Amino acid sequence: MGGREIWNSGLVLSNKTQLTRYTGPHLGFNTRYIWSVNVSTSAGSGMGYSEFVTGPQAPNSFQVGRRASPTIPDLSDVFNSSSWIWTADANLMNAPAGDRAFRYTFTTPPGKLAAFADILITVDNHFSLYVNGFFVGESGPGWKHSQSYHLSFGANISRIVFAIHATNYNTPEKPPPVAGVIAGIQIGFDTGEIALVSTNNTWLSNTKVPEGFELFSFDDSTWPPAKSLTKYGGGFWETSVKFSTDQSNITITSAPTTSSSVGHTVTAHSQSTTPTITTTPPPSNNAAGNVGAIVGGIFGGVTTILLLILACLWHRRKLNKQLNTGAYNI
Question: Where is composition skewed (Low complexity) in this entry (predicted)?
Fold first, then answer.
């Protein structure tokens, strides 16, 4: 299990099967954690793991390095300057049914690093969006309903790869047979400046969706440019897209991989080759209040299940031994 280890209890001799108290450091906000339990008894041993996500901070509070205001940025200007794009086999009035892949790599100017990105996107018919190899989100109820995402980069970065898996259905219930991807993106630098990214023929496209196409390290050097079909406001779509009034807040961080440990562990989920993405859950006033109790309760439940399994195995081994000697009780 890859990740940065937060806490390791080591071997604990105890007959408790639940409510083991977490005694590690304070857990961060908006972070996905993985915990594991290794139980050893005279009948054998077993290991299990699960995960949980801590909530956001209390209202009217802020943390250095995070957005203090929940205000959704106005991306209408950059969206209005974007084009509907697809692969070269499509035109404004017709596009074959099927899956398509699109990629765009943004490299920061010298002396600047990216701290966050805001994305407003929709696709006719369906999309899955990835950033630096990790799933960010997918289509809503239809292309008229755009989706909005705010990405915070835990460590400022100099390169961002946006990847989109788009699908055109072209079913009889969906005339006319058109398809398109459109997005407006703003990227914030550590200097306080902003860069804008529109969908146009600077994006790359593929009529296939290669395995791993969304990964940061994927080689797209042979991909042709996407085809710009029309600016926003043109074609079948006109100005029918509704700009999202809700925004999903997502944190992307990176950390080195460490080996798993014996005992009770709480691990901040991460990978060494690509960043980890953590989705913020709905706001809660008690988001981080009872993390210790949550961890203890979850740990206790899994431990109880493991002990029951081990007890059954021990009882079965005892019964087999009795059967082999010809003496047993029912």
Answer: 273-284
